[in-house]
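In keeping with the milestone schedule agreed at the kick-off meeting, the structural modelling team has produced records for the first pair of proteins. Each record is given below as a sequence line and a structure-token line. The laboratory manager (R.T.) confirmed that both were archived under the project's standard naming scheme.
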Amino acid sequence: MSEEILRVLEFAKVRNLLAGFTVSAPGRERVLALHPLPPEQAPAALAEVQEMETVLAAADRSPVVGGRDLRRALRQLRAEGSWLPADDLLEVLASAEAAQECRRFFAERQEVPRLARRAQALASLKELRQNLRASLGVRGEILDSASFELGEIRREILQARNQIKRILEGLLAAEGLAAVFQERIITERGGRYVLPVRADRRSQLKGFIHDESASGQTLYLEPTSALSGNNRLQILLREERREEEAILRRLSALVRRDAADLAGNQEILACFDYNAAAAQFSRRYAGTVPQLTVEPLVELRAARHPLLLFQPNGEPRGGEVVPIDLLLGAGCDTLVVSGPNTGGKTVALKTVGLLLLMVRSGLPIPCAPDSRLHLFGRIFADIGDEQSIEGNLSTFSGHLTRIRQILTAADGDSLVLLDEAGTGTDPAEGGALALAVLDTLRARGARVILTTHLNLIKGYAHLNRGVENAAVEFDGRTLAPSYRLHYGIPGTSSAFAIARLLGIPEKVLATAADYLGSGEQEGLSLIEELNRLRKELAAEREEARRSTAEAHRERDRRRQLLRELEEQRKSLLDKTARRGEEQVRAAERKLSTLLRKAEETTAIAPPERAGLLGELRSVKSEVARLRPAPARGKIPKETQVGEVLRVPALGAEGEVVRVASGEVELSVQGKKLRLPLRDLEQFSPRRFAARRKGGMVRSSVVRDGFQPRLILIGKRIDAALPLLDRFLDDALLHGIREVEVVHGAGEGILRRGVRDFLARHQGVAAFRGGDMAQGGENVTTVELRET
């Protein structure tokens, strides 16, 4: 499957799990009593997978990256004194860092509490990680920083090599020896530096021959002048190997010390990895966790067999998978599924068992969200043909063997799946035996789902309370199954219809009908008629359901329109009332002004002034009488601090400053009032007092043009370290977590000085040599602490 949908590895892990649950897998025992998880543990496992789906939906990646299987390495370290090679130690480092990254990933994710708690159980192993990271390169090489002694030995090795090369380069450049050399190059044989000398000029240069070419014309000679240097180099190389082994032993001892934590981390990471794979798988087919019930029942709605959704390589299958309802409700302990061959009876049976076992294993299943399911303690299945010539088992004997095992172990918390019950022998005897088995299982309280073609068992389901018939839908004209189940009536095998469509002569079919007998034919005709009527009723019921749903939608639409019109009417009335109130207030202000001027004036005689004042007061009274009564607003059912409410008794507005059990405290024109909600009015839409947002003053020091890469090549240590110090300060100011320092190789003096400085710097969390793409040991990658 493509990477953006589901990794093949993740699909394979879950698919292999499902294949183990498929009750008809070839070569696998058909009678299964699997216990993927104890029923009490399944809900927690399902919850973790659901939380992982939430994580994947947000992060779109698995939180477990880089984990390794350390079991072999940890077993190897059980022997005291044993040690691991550098490649195995790198695996340990990768796994420890994966655990730390997983722990950090879930540290602040409160929305997934179960996974967060599991991640907190991961051991940090900080000391182990630091030692391994400081000692090993990305390719498994042991770094100079692994120990001071190793760094000094390698420095001496470098000096010894350079000294030998200078001696040999001097011989190559000597004019008197120009004819002696086959090529003017320095090569190596057996770890010693040699020169390619012509065989016929051997006597012109003293030294020791270490090898010759295939033609014998070139001898690889170690000049006597380089002998002591080569000897010194070999001693240093042996010291280097001894020191590297000592470092590996020291690191292995740390791993041995933390072996228990590493093993615990691996177990937790494996659990996270499984949850991630299961979550990816669930997201791919829209998995759901059904409601888990204490009562033994099965109500799987719109269920699909998950292995029908994908091809073996994980690619989606073409075509639509028909969902089916698998119902074994509270008042029913047995479901009898009947219908024609190829109608989907066995697939329905397998779907029930598989989905139940998936839930028991902590996997969401493809079904409708309103499904309900009991986690049966045991599941038994008799599916398929176990005929065996070598084992002297006929088809019927194979069925009886499995039935015996089921009758031995089934109890009241068991689900039993029986395919083609009563077949393989005489129908009458086989049917009677199947009914006896049903009676026994029902008496124990077990739940049973079976498929059959036998009318005796179909009649048993019709006559006994707690047993229900279900028919597989089938089109007799096209022989096309729909795979849907219809409950309450049995299905027909449709053998005559299938034979007629496949070309069996009508004369043969007529003879078969005569053998069948009139009573049997009438019974089959009645069942077919019932199925036809059921299909018509189902179609009419679906049409009625659609009509009812449309009527409900129209009703809701009308109610919504009425609500909107009422809100618009109220809004217009409120605006008109407020406009009228404003006009009345303006008139009152003008009248008051006129009255004041009239009372203050002295030019008018007292009788005239008194008459004028009386007329003005009558006008004012008339205006007050004409003022519209304020519309009563709605009484607030709830309010909050900062909301503006109206106080009708005062004709004023106030801001809510405190709310307490049916009463509010208001600020009205600078005064505090406490009133019950029934004495207040709420604006529509609600109004809130404007709040001033206080300013914030922030200061920051930012240097423009910062690049997270410092080049120190060619600089002396005393000049480079101040530049490095300022570079790290700038990076911390910018909040950068990782930077690169390019110091080159040379004799390693600048590199050691830089790394010694980094080891003492308080802002540095860790550092390591760069990978090949970055420049290898010519570059040091620095991880900075969070500020």
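The second protein of the pair:
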Amino acid sequence: MTVPSKVMDNTKASEAAVALKEAGNKCYKDDDNEGALVAYTKAIEASEELNDEKLLATCLKNRAAVYLKYEDFEHVVSDCTRALELVPNDPKTLYRRCQAHEALNQVDSAYTDAREVHRIDPKNAAIEPVLVRLHKAVALKLNELGQTSNKVKNMFEIVFDITKDKEKREKAADNLIVLARERDGANTLFKDGVLPRIAKLMKVEKNIPIRLSMIRTIGELAKKSQEIARAILQECGVPFFLDVVNSENEEVVNASSYILQCVLNTFSHNDIQIGIEEKKKKGRQMTSAERKWTISEEKRRHELIKLNGKELVSIMNVVTFNIVSRTLTGKARDALIELIMNNCKYDQLNWAELCLKMDTYQRLMEVASEMKDFKHESSMDITDRTRCVVGVCLNVMYDQMWDDGRRLQMGEQIDEFIRLKLQDQDSEAHVRAIVAITTLLKNAPELGSGQIGKDGITQIMLTMAQSDDKVQQIVAAEAIIAACAKKKDTISIVSHGVDILKAMYKSKDDQIKVRALVGLCKLSASAGHDASMRPFADGSTEKLGEACRRILINPGKELDMRRWAAEGLSYLTLDAGVKEKLAEDEAAVKSLIGLAKEGNQEAAYGVVTTFVNLTNSFEKQEINPEMLELAKFAKHHIPQEHELDDQDFVDKRIWTLAEWGITSALVAFYKNDSKNIQELIARVLNAVCKFPELRGFVVQQGGSKALACLALEGTDKGKRHAAQGLARVGITQDPAIAFPGNRSVDIIRPICHLLNAEFDGLENFEALMALGNLATLSESCRSRMIKSSEYINAIEGYTFEDHIMIRRAAIQCWSNLCISPLMVQRCEGKNDKVKYCVLLCADDDDTAIIMAAAGSLAMLTSQSNKICKKIFESIQWTECLLNTLANPDYNIVLRGAVILKNMINSSKEVAEKILETQLMECIQAHIFRAKLDEGSYEPDQNLIKVKAIAEETLKVAHDMKVIRTQEESDAIDDIAIDAIRMD
């Protein structure tokens, strides 16, 4: 009888899974936690494939034990919970989860698990003291909850009585937020009826701090559970939040829109999906277990969205309907549009597609067509950033249309809006159409270029520019500026519009004149950095630059005029001659910096882009030499770089700008809504940080804080430049000053992302140097690097790098991490880390590597007797240690002496093994050399330290009776001689 091949395959797979589990068990017994984690994870994946629930539960339980050693308690709870779902009532699994719950301060859950262990295994003596301890903790918590309930009642009496003292009410309102952040406190508040009380109070409360506290309290409650989130909608209603968000106070607006986002997240688990997306962005290959978890979470999300569909659609309808409300403040309108943008992704709430069935796109275009400076009776209130926000929102929504059909639908709705406006005989409707197109051109280029390419649109713009109406001229000028983004559009406008812009420039109205000037600047710069092409006659660019400069440095000019002048310079500075002239003009540069400090975010593009051009920190396209030769052969135009863009000139400009305070201007804009602006800021700051002498200016002017934020959010390229800037600052500046508080821990993640083999070697080197400095700062920094296997594995990987500088930086970083007990625990495992460190002590290529390796061993052996014994695992341990003790550099000798002292202190067995080598003779030689050196004029301080350590080492060895003094040796010899004579 033949056994089916499928059965044989399953048997082999089952044996392989069991073998992986056994390998994990062996690693765990040998204290090789890293090996155990890898083996158990593979065993889990294998058992999932086999659908072997019993084996899967065992492997999960065992992996939880490893996570306990790493103090990764969240993973312990997760693994144990999964194991108990498969094999309920397993006492070991329950006990491990109990330990994790207790460590996470979840004493009620820990007590429940402990009681279950005692019920299943009443003879288990280990659980009894745990039960006693947890019983006391639970009783204490119940007592605290009772006190919390009393506090809540007292706070209610103060907060909700408008006749009480103002300061007491504000303090009590703040305390409500603190309570709402804790799960138990939130449940108490909810049960005691805080929601209807807040809804009632908000109708009459005028005190802004109290209103803000009430809003934030609801926001915290909304995150806790679906029950509370649903109650918030029932008690308050979505219109309540629109009333609350309708404020001129930015804090109130942000807090109110945050509540709606929290409710949406609770109803859809949107926050979990965002977390999944973050994991995917890291580019790390997910394990089978992680993939299955992701699939199950996404399935659960879809079920939850379906269950709460009515509430989710209701919120969406109210938000999208009210974005054109004439009673809404500009800040509230911005907040609602941002809420739409945050929930439009197709793999989240998919509002972008759902809005196709409504008139949302028409409403968004209505906002996009609004003008801030020219009002009429039916105008909406908008801010300086509203058009930018709505344009970015439309761009994001367009990106979420995953097929041509949906994109076509969205395009048709936008076409319909523009068509209806242009069909209207009223000139105001035409103006609004062109304003809307300008908004799209600036913020949603693909949608905007689709409109500008339609027949008659460019002609309408040029006709409006020639009219006598001021509003039409201004709108047309802005549209022409925005339309010059693509070369084909620029050529058309250069041929038809230059004369019109020149005529507008002669206008007596400054608003028209400055926009015409910027239009001319943009057309003049249409050749970009190509020094061989110039659309205008020679000297025209310099004249335009001088015109922009006069407006910029004139303090009497309005802010809006100076902003436009900065934008004009942002185009003109593509020309190297204008760059060089501007970089020598202190008044103009300081005017740009002053413009930034005034905080108008609309000036960000002009100011930041000008600085990008001056520092040449824009993205440069690498030219393949073969393609260049091919282009020459085909007689294609070859762009030429100006001689003033040579690196020496660029470096000089960066130095000048940094000394004049360019960093302070960039810091003023780093919170800009545009990810592209953030990337440009990161590029310029990174260019400044290239020079060690300028990094102090960056830190003093707040650049390190800006870089820390830019490294965590924005475009991938922007985050990379910001991370490199952080690394550069971290190399030469004191990390405690440059990155105070928790910032030093937060920046580790972005800097570690530079440890990528695909990145430039300089980025790898600078990241390792910075991490080495951060490792000396605190145990928090060290544990962040060590606890993440991704980070520590990357650092260790570079210790084998061929490039000597990168290798040295990695070894020095690793050495600084050896202060941490976590690194000691890592090295104690079954691996070759100590062996490799010993071998590095004999590295003849680099003294710095020997010093770092010897320092690592000195720190590790001082903390672990086990590592002292592991040194013998290297066959060449004697020669390697001799290389440290016989080194001409006494810094290295000192480290070698410490290693020897630690080893002899560890045990008599180790000391006796050392005595068999020449190491003790080497130590004695250093004592003799130090005594000779003591009589010199300037004795070597390191040698004096070596002598002290050597003498202490010899004393310990003597006390162990491993070595003897000369007198003791002579006495023993005499006894031996007398014994021979007697024989």
